[in-house]
Sequence to fold (334 residues):
Amino acid sequence: MPLAVNLAKYPSGPITPENFEVVEVPTPAVPEGWFLIRNRVFSLDAGFRQWMSEGAGDNYLSGMALNEPVQSIVLGEVVETRHPDYPVGTLVNARTAWEEVSLLDGSDLCAPLQCADDLPLQDYMSTLGPTGITAWLGLFRIGLPKAGDVVVVSAAGGAVGTIVGQLAKAAGCRTIGLVSSSAKAQWLTDEVGYDVAISREAQPDLAAALADAAPTGIDLFFDNVGGGVLNTAMQHLREGARLVLCGAISQYESEVQPITHSWELVTKRARMEGFMFSDYVDEFPEVMATLESALRDGTLKTFDQQYNGIEQTPQAFCDMMHGASRGKCLVLLG
Ligand SMILES: NC(=O)c1ccc[n+]([C@@H]2O[C@H](COP(=O)([O-])OP(=O)(O)OC[C@H]3O[C@@H](n4cnc5c(N)ncnc54)[C@H](OP(=O)(O)O)[C@@H]3O)[C@@H](O)[C@H]2O)c1
Fold:
């Protein structure tokens, strides 16, 4: 029987592999209008941690239920079909769950994928998937970078952060990335291409580090972390700054830290705006084509950390949440 990963216990505080359970599940029958996919790649996304807590659920997604497969974005291949738009062999991007096979009806961010033969399939779950699309939309639709801008990115060594840094640099900006460890900071400047990297390990006083790295202030803050990091960045803005609220990972597993510097937005005539990538579905093909051509001409690189087999998914997710992975965290199912 195929395997799935269930949410076994609601996490409170940092999530561990014990919050999940790998189980066998029967292969579902396929009703008229539905199709079955064999999943090839799981995209592990920090945002989903938000909906794993007990009582979670909001205007965007419902909270996850115990003893049900964990929600996820996946890339799969149609293996059985009773849906005219999804013949057998079609590659599909969908929001479904950590399971080896999924039954779908074509709704919920589901779309057929045209994957180029000369690019790795898993890129369609990272740079060419929701992660890359999020980075591009947040930067160019909300952040509006101009050449010469100082762009600061939090969680810069993660999936979204590695792409935002490269795109901002290619747009002529000076890029500063915030990460946890000195080793990750070194990798960020040496390989990902950030101009400057600030690590919590080597420079625990973020205010001082930002004052040093961006003495004239921040033009664009791309925030994946929220809480204290956002609050500190608010004190270092240049006039006309843009703050892109992409995520708030510091809040997903611990107490929310207060924002006390909103007055800075007034005097700096700054704009702070949140967004969800899924509001821009109509733009996905164009954004994907732009990212695909940047991958081909070498101005953009994919950084990913791959795990193999569904059994690795709980550990992979915890590694991603707690900074043990670099770039996009993926599980390949073969
Ligand atoms: N708005 C949207 O449509 C959208 C779509 C996708 C993702 N997102 C958001 O984008 C953010 C990044 O998601 P991702 O999937 O790309 O994850 P990711 O950046 O690959 O992984 C999360 C990283 O966050 C850092 N981190 C964890 N706890 C932290 C803390 N308390 N303070 C500072 N850094 C912390 C860790 O790196 P370090 O080693 O540096 O600590 C970790 O590796 C998340 O907030 C997510 O919710 C938003």
